[in-house]
Amino acid sequence: MKTPHKFDKYLGTLWRYRDFRMLWLSLTITHFGGQVTFLALPLTAAILLNASPVEMGILTAVEVLPYTLFGLFTGVLVDRSRKLPLIIVADVGRGLALLTIPIASWFHMLSMPILYVAGFLVGTGGIIGWSAYQVFMAERVGRDQLVEANSRIALSDSAAQLIGPGLAGMIIHALTAPFAILLDAMSFFASALMLRSIKPATTDAPKLQGKSLSLESIWIDAKEGLAMIWRTPILRSIAFSLMMWNILKHVYLAILILFATRELQLSPGQIGVLFMIAGLGFLLASATCQWLNRRYGVGPIMLFGLSLSGISWLLVATVSAEKLTMLHFGSALFTFDFGAMLFFINYLTLRQAVTPDHLRGRVTSTLIFISVSLSPLGSLAGGLMGEYLGLRTTIAIAGGGGLLLGLALFGFSPLKQMVKLPEPENVPALIAEPGGPTGLTAD
Length: 443
What we know:
This protein is mainly alpha-helical. It has 15 helices and no strands. It has one domain (about 15-195, about 215-425): Growth Hormone, Chain: A, CATH 1.20.1250.20. The protein is about 75% helix and about 0% strand. The N and C termini lie close together (about 10 Å).
C-alpha cells in the first residue's frame, strides 16, 4: 500500500490509483455524452419527426427492450469473460449505433425506424457495458472500498447531471439534435481508448472457466444468480421494488419531453437548463447520502428516496405554462433526482456488498433484468395513455403509483429495518482484508 497522503482525508484513497482514475474518467465522459443523447434522441423524434405519444412510447420501449431480452444471460457472459474487453466493445458498438443518426440526418433519410434501431443497439451495449463495468470496478477496488468508489461514480453522475443538460441544450440549439448526438458517439470512442490503457490484473480472470457454451449450461449459471436473489430477502425486496418503480418511471419518461415541448412550450435550451437544476439534486444526494445513512439508516433512506420520486412526478403533473413554469418544473425535477440518487447509491453498494465474488456478474445482470424486464410495457402504456388520457393525466397516474409504492414498502419491506450494510452470508473469506489484493496498483 502506498504511504497515506495528506489529501486522503478530503479525497479518499482511490484517487491515487491510476486504474480507478481511468475507469472514473471514462465513465464521466460517457455520462456527459449520455446527457446529450438523453435530450437529443427524444427531441429529434418530437421536434424534427413530429412523433406522436405512441411513437414516443415505442422509442422509449425499444431503448430498454434489450434489458428484457438479454438481461438474464448477460451476467453469465460477464462472469465467463474478461470484463475490460466487454466494456470496450460495448463502448465502440454504442458509438457506431449513434453515428447512424447524424449520418441519416445529413442525407435527409432520418426516420423513426432508424431511431428505434439506434436506441435498441445503444440499449444492448448499455446492459453489457454497464454490467461488466460494475463488476470490473468492484474487482479492482476491493470490497472495503466500494462505498468510496460508488460515491465517486455518483459524483461524476451528479456533475454530468448538473452541467451536461445545459451544454446539451446549447449544442442541440446550435447544431440540431441529430448532430448533437454525434458528440455522444465520440464520447464512447474516447472512453474505449482510455480503457485500453488499463493493464491486466489477476482479479480480471473470468469467474466461470472451462464450461461449455451450451444453452443448458448457460441457463444453469443464470439460475444461480436468480437463486441468490430469491434466498436473500433484502435483494428479493429490492428486485420487486425496482421492477414496479421502473414500470412507473417509463410511463413518465415516455411522454416527458412531449409534455415539456408541447404543453409547456419549452425550447431545447430551456429543457437543458431545467435538467441542470435537476442535477443539483444528484449533487446534493451524493454529498449527503453517507451522513443520512449514518443518522437514519441505509434502508429507510433508500425507501425515502424511492417515495420522493413519486412525489416529484405528482409535482411535474401540476406544472402549467406560466411565468413560474421554469421554477416549478425545475423544482420537481430536482426532487426526483435527489430522491432517485439516494436510492441508487445505496442500492449499488448494497448489491455489491452482499454478493459473493463468483456470483457478482450474474446477480448484477439478473437484478437489472428483473428490475427492467417489464419497463417496455411501461413505456408503451405511457404512450397509449398519453395519446388517449392526456400527457398531464398520465404523469399524475405515474406519480400516484410511485407514492403508493413507497408507502407500501415502508410497511412491508425488510429494507425499513436495515440500518447498516450487511455482509455476504456465510462467506467471510470473501471480505477484503486491509491491504489485501484488489487489483489496483498505486502510482
